[in-house]
Amino acid sequence: MPESPPLAGPALVKSVDDAGGSGPGGPVEVDRATLRLALTVGGLVLAVLLGFGLGRLNPPPNPTRTGSLPVTGEHSHAPGVGAHSHGGATVTRGGDADAAGLSISSAGYTLAPSTVEFVPGRAGELRFQIRDERRRAVTRFAVVHDKPMHLIVVRRDLTGYQHLHPTMAPDGTWSVPLTMAEPGAWRAYADFTAVADDGRQTAVILGADLAAPGGYAPRPLPAPATSTTVDGFTVAYEGTPTVGQSVPLRFRVTGPGGAAPLEPYLGAYGHLVALREGDLGYLHVHPEPVRDGDAVTFWLTAPGPGRYRMFLDFQVAGVVRTAAFTVPVA
């Protein structure tokens, strides 16, 4: 331990003459009250210096970052948590443990669209940036599920679902063609993993409201069902989502000749998004890396009771289709 610096200060003494008056050359007598004060102050200073030295010899343990997952190399995930790990980096999940996408800002990042109003039925373009805490445009993103940015757009009645992949300009501006088929209030979700200056990666889902002016006539959700038909394919699932529990959902796609020859799409044999009716909370779940026979298994954790709309993207013969399900959670 380095030596403590010497304590320095003015001489706390009083010079007096024989008659009791002060004057140079007289005997020096210590003022008792002043001496007590000097000893007290000196003791406090010494305690502080000793504490500093001991602290340097015994540093506190490194803090643990909440929500981070260790990485083993390949893209991986814990069932139902919705966080990402990949490529030899620790990835922190932004947001809370509930459904994501409820805020335009989370984990130090903000979704900044250049426009939020579109003409119904007319082709337009959505442009936006992801900005950090210093309002700088983020330009470094990790590739997750084959893309650095996933954009989900849906009307507030959970119709008109679109899964898009914008492209980024050098200044960090993302752009993607977008058509809102019908008037109403819409919601856009940016699902990405940002890479900070120090290499730290943060998985975030941000949401922003969009508008298509005109008469808005919301449609009720279809009745709950565990199977549906899309372009001649029957899509069915098994499993019952449960509040607060990670539950496997097994999807099977069949065609006229039996099990459909599914092709990898976005790095897996399916891509599933679930949205909560009402606040449109976003649940991005991930499939198991290995198929269970002809089934594709996803792990889903429902954060609360209510009705959810699940959207399963799958690819056959180079064409991506989407099957939608209404799921009640008690």
Architecture overview:
The chain is mainly β and 330 residues long. Helix content is 8%, strand content 38%. Strands 3-4-13-12-8-9 form a six-stranded mixed sheet, with no helix packed on it. It has a five-stranded antiparallel sheet with strand order 5-6-7-11-10, with no helix packed on it. Strands 14, 15, 16, 17 and 20 form a five-stranded antiparallel sheet that branches. The longest helix is centred in the N-terminal third of the chain and has 26 residues, at 32-57. The model is unreliable at 1-89 (pLDDT under 50).
Order of helices and strands: EEHEEEEEEEEEEEEEEEEEEEE
Sequence stretches where pLDDT stays below 50 over 5 or more residues: 1-89
Distance between the termini: 62 Å
* Record field, number of beta strands: 22
Please, how many helices?
Answer: 1
> What gross morphology would you assign?
globular
Using only C-alpha atoms, the radius of gyration works out to 32 Å
Largest sheet properties: 6 strands, mixed
- β-strand percent reads 35-45%
Main sheet: strand order:
3-4-13-12-8-9
